[in-house]
Amino acid sequence: MRNDRLKIVFVLCLAFVSTGGQHLESKVAQLLQDKAEDIKCFVEGKDLTCFWEEEEERNNLHDQYTFTYSYENKKKMACVVSSLSLLASNKTVFFCKLPKTPFFTTLVVQVYRDAQMLYSRSLNAENFLFLDPPRNLTVTNSGKEGQLNVSWLPPPLKYMDDSLIYEVRYAMEGSNMGKVEVIKVSTMLVLLGLQSDTRYKVWVRVKPDGVAYKGYWSAWTEPVFGVTPPGDMDPLIVVLVLFIGLILCLLSLTVILSHHKFLLKKLWPDIPTPEHKFPGLFTVYKGDFKEWMSQNNGSIWGRSVHVYAEELPSPLEVLSEVSLTGHATSQREERKPVEEEEEKESERSDSRLTDRWREPPHAHWLMEQLRALQDNPESLSQSSLLQSHDTYVTLNQGDNERQDDDVFEETVPLQTLFTTAGTSSLSTSRSDLGSLQQSSGSGRLSSQSSFEYPNHTWPPKGPGYAYMAVADSGVSMDYSPMSSSRIAELGKHRMYTNDYKNDIFPHKWPLSGQHIKSGSGSCTGTVW
Amino acid sequence: MGSVAERSKALDLGSSLSGGVGLVSVLMVFVWLGENQVSPLRPICDLRVLDHFVREARDSEVIMRGCRGGCGVMKSYFVPLTSVDFAVWEHTDVHGQAVEVQTGLSLLDQALNNAMKTVSNSPLASVLENNISNIHSLGQILHSLDLQQARSTVLPDDSVPASAQTQEVSSLPELLQVQSSFLRGKVRLLLSAAPACQRQNS
């Protein structure tokens, strides 16, 4: 029985020593990194332990070492040296544990090896406390959002409860980045500002506060987990969010309603239709233009023209024709392919008027003829072709000397007079005339001169005279000699090209005059 | 008629006598109350006061280390023992602890005063003066704890049981180190374990 008891006691002692040794080993291992001192000391509990590393190239015989300590000028006292093998770093240390460590006094510790002093150090024991970690760490849910209650017990010490500071480290589970809170004396803490419904890990360690006692940080406790309560939406915030959303909706609705027409125009624009220009075309005649034209032949044409005062189609007559048939026919023949070219080109053109003067091959001859006619106005008086409301094109010429092609092209401004029942067009055209003076000063506007047709009648199917049809805007001008039959065609063709609703004849005659390309113009006009 | 006058006279005398006796008795009662009733100081149990003194003692050590010139002469001072063996200390009763602390404070006070006479460096002199006033305050704190310690604050050098309770140091830095250790050790242990404060805490 007694043997059993002894055995039990021995086993317990061993266990105690081993755990103590484990503590010792861990502490020694931690302090081993401190290279400042040869003898490293710490106080565990109430006892000072000093250790030093085994020197290399020595045998592992701890009998050689002698450890002495003294204080307050007393005699030196010896301490029993023991050895410890560190498994982690595969080193051996010798240590000594002072049996009764005096505190608050200067200790002088020395290590001798074979009566030769190896190390010496003087220290105050209360400055090297190496405490055990706190115990009984608990993390509880406080019930409030984002908070955890942490509490622990201090290491078992007397007289030091009020001299300790703690460090609480916490991190989200799975993360290594933690925050640290330092707390003095008190052994509980409320963690604030945490995420809701998250699992947290918490560690604690302890150290003397450094006023009366000093020391090293203890080891961290084992982590303890805690879960924060799930967060609930603050009802005030929900109400505010809804309110603001409602206000925003109302505002946007108001804006949309007040500008709905504008928005509709932008998002769903009307497809432009030419209906307004052809009254009755789509409604009555179902798009049959021929019928519509036949019904509204003269008057409607005139009326439609009259409505858009600036888009006046007006026939253009050059009232002089010289019966040089050879020239004329040759000119006409030459011009036929040119004419077709022109027509095609004009059809291909955009909404601008592309008028091209094609220089007549016999420009000089032409000018001479005109001059002749001009000089003899009485020869023209016989003409019955003039109608006051017809449009006249006067080809104004510059100096007679300048017979060059370039000069001819530059100095022949095309001037159109619009004469209709109304004078408004005339007035506008007069203003346009002003803008038409683009020549280098040699142009002269003569609005009234007219060329009378001396020999021929004026029916618009003569083979020899130029006939210009001035259609409304959007129509490319074609100064080519053509028969009357083509006029109607031209009208038909031209009427439907390039209709733009918004521009009320911006490209009027005067502007069309500007489009006369000087380089390529050819007046396929007068043939007489 | 004579009897009436005599009676009135006697009455007057009697009343005055009784009044006087009453007054005296009241006074007696007051005196008795005053004597019996201790007018105690409130016990100062907050150790932060002591921690403040400890920090200032440490500051004086730092200033001492940085002192160049006029830092006192080599002189021997008798200072208390500062070492604390917890096992022994716990076995000492409070009264004995109080006596130790009180005598130690006295010794330190004396030594510091002697040292100040030899110091001409003004920062050092001012911190020494501060330390002396701190020691006086500690005396007051001890008194407030009512530990029945010896009331004498100043002891002559030769009457102290030197060997048991004192040690000798030979320089001012050592003196300051002893002061620091003494305050952190014995004084603190005594104050933290004072019965007057324990009663308050529990």
Automatic annotation (TrEMBL), chain A:
GO molecular function, one term: cytokine receptor activity
Transmembrane intervals: 236-257
Top-level division of the source organism's lineage: Eukaryota
Bias (Basic and acidic residues) ranges: 345-356
Keyword match Metal-binding: no
Signal sequence, renumbered to the chain: 1-21
Disulfide bond sites: 41-50, 79-96
Keyword Cell membrane applies: yes
Biased composition (Low complexity): 422-450
Gene3D superfamilies in alphabetical order: Immunoglobulins (2.60.40.10)
Region (Disordered): 325-356, 422-455
Keywords: Cell membrane, Disulfide bond, Glycoprotein, Membrane, Receptor, Signal, Transmembrane, Transmembrane helix
GO cellular component term, pick one: external side of plasma membrane
Compartment(s) of residence: Cell membrane
Primary site of residence: membrane
Listed InterPro entries: Erythropoietin_rcpt, FN3_dom, FN3_sf, Growth/epo_recpt_lig-bind, Ig-like_fold
Record-linked SMART domains: FN3
Membrane topology: Single-pass type I membrane protein
Domain Fibronectin type-III residues, every copy: 133-231
Membership in a protein family: Belongs to the type I cytokine receptor family. Type 1 subfamily.
Name of the featured protein: Erythropoietin receptor
Organism of this sequence: Cirrhinus molitorella (mud carp)
Lineage, top ranks: Eukaryota, Metazoa, Chordata, Craniata, Vertebrata
UniProtKB/TrEMBL annotation, chain B:
Superkingdom of source: Eukaryota
Transmembrane segments: 12-33
Keyword field: Disulfide bond, Erythrocyte maturation, Hormone, Membrane, Secreted, Signal, Transmembrane, Transmembrane helix
One Pfam family from the record: EPO_TPO
Keyword Hydrolase: no
Keyword Transcription annotated: no
InterPro entries referenced in this protein's UniProt entry, alphabetically: 4_helix_cytokine-like_core, EPO_TPO, Erythroptn
Subcellular localization, as worded in the UniProt entry: Secreted
Classification via PANTHER family: ERYTHROPOIETIN (PTHR10370:SF0)
Family membership: Belongs to the EPO/TPO family.
Name the UniProt record assigns to this protein: Erythropoietin
